[in-house]
Amino acid sequence: MTQLTIAMGKGRTADRAMKLFEQVGIRFSDYHDKSRKLVIYDDDNKVKLIFVKAVDVPTYVENGAADIGIVGKDTIMEDPVDVYELMDLGIGKCIVAVAGFPEKEFTNGAPLTVASKYPTIAKDYFNGQGIRVETIKLNGSIELAPLIGLADVIVDIVETGTTLKENGLVVLEKIADVSARVIVNKASYATKTSQIQQFIGDLKAALE
Ligand SMILES: Nc1ncnc2c1ncn2[C@@H]1O[C@H](COP(=O)(O)OP(=O)(O)OP(=O)(O)O)[C@@H](O)[C@H]1O
Ligand SMILES: O=P(O)(O)OC[C@H]1O[C@H](OP(=O)(O)OP(=O)(O)O)[C@H](O)[C@@H]1O
């Protein structure tokens, strides 16, 4: 029997994806959200699930260390890899947006300083509008940057909007809608076609 290896983030993605797996009859009795286990198998031993940092999911899939990855569109946009993107799971919904103080104007002469976990998305977006930017890569607490004068604006994920609101910031422009996607290694798709198609088909049916 051919086993599928699936990589996904161990944080927000995991709980939501686990519910979907359950709906299509893939059960991980070993799983509980406080577990520190990085590799688990489903009860029928058909799926090996590996928990990785969300930004690393595409790397595992592109290199064939995982056949399938579940990862946010934001991560794929920031660092595109050579894989098939086969499905939108509709979980982990949020937006990538430019945020800052309400009165911020983008069109003054000096380059705008943008702090972000997503410097490529930020640069592409502003350059596409003919606005010069300098990006500052941060790994968290992005909303702090405008508050302490490190950056004029930020480009970040907004889900409920609570973090922005509690820090006196607002969405200035939406860049993209985000949700979790199923990505597939190209060689795996050729060698494990029926299992992968069945997995995707079951998920699609469950979401209808
Ligand atoms: N409020 C949110 N903040 C961050 N990411 C969100 C939010 N809502 C949905 N997402 C999605 O979840 C993804 C992060 O997934 P997850 O939390 O599983 O990753 P992780 O590697 O465990 O997290 P971390 O990087 O915090 O350790 C993001 O890339 C994004 O697509
Ligand atoms: O709109 P909201 O519902 O408030 O969610 C958005 C916040 O969540 C994420 O941060 P995360 O919790 O991953 O923490 P981080 O600062 O370590 O990136 C994101 O970077 C925003 O700060």
TrEMBL record:
<comment type="function">
    <text>Catalyzes the condensation of ATP and 5-phosphoribose 1-diphosphate to form N'-(5'-phosphoribosyl)-ATP (PR-ATP). Has a crucial role in the pathway because the rate of histidine biosynthesis seems to be controlled primarily by regulation of HisG enzymatic activity.</text>
</comment>
<dbReference type="InterPro" id="IPR018198">
    <property type="entry name" value="ATP_PRibTrfase_CS"/>
</dbReference>
<comment type="similarity">
    <text>Belongs to the ATP phosphoribosyltransferase family. Short subfamily.</text>
</comment>
<keyword id="KW-0028">Amino-acid biosynthesis</keyword>
<dbReference type="InterPro" id="IPR024893">
    <property type="entry name" value="ATP_PRibTrfase_HisG_short"/>
</dbReference>
<feature type="domain" description="ATP phosphoribosyltransferase catalytic">
    <location>
        <begin position="53"/>
        <end position="204"/>
    </location>
</feature>
<comment type="pathway">
    <text>Amino-acid biosynthesis; L-histidine biosynthesis; L-histidine from 5-phospho-alpha-D-ribose 1-diphosphate: step 1/9.</text>
</comment>
<dbReference type="InterPro" id="IPR013820">
    <property type="entry name" value="ATP_PRibTrfase_cat"/>
</dbReference>
<protein>
    <recommendedName>
        <fullName>ATP phosphoribosyltransferase</fullName>
        <ecNumber>2.4.2.17</ecNumber>
    </recommendedName>
</protein>
<keyword id="KW-0067">ATP-binding</keyword>
<keyword id="KW-0368">Histidine biosynthesis</keyword>
<keyword id="KW-0808">Transferase</keyword>
<comment type="subunit">
    <text>Heteromultimer composed of HisG and HisZ subunits.</text>
</comment>
<dbReference type="GO" id="GO:0003879">
    <property type="term" value="F:ATP phosphoribosyltransferase activity"/>
</dbReference>
<keyword id="KW-0547">Nucleotide-binding</keyword>
<keyword id="KW-0963">Cytoplasm</keyword>
<keyword id="KW-0328">Glycosyltransferase</keyword>
<dbReference type="Pfam" id="PF01634">
    <property type="entry name" value="HisG"/>
</dbReference>
<dbReference type="InterPro" id="IPR001348">
    <property type="entry name" value="ATP_PRibTrfase_HisG"/>
</dbReference>
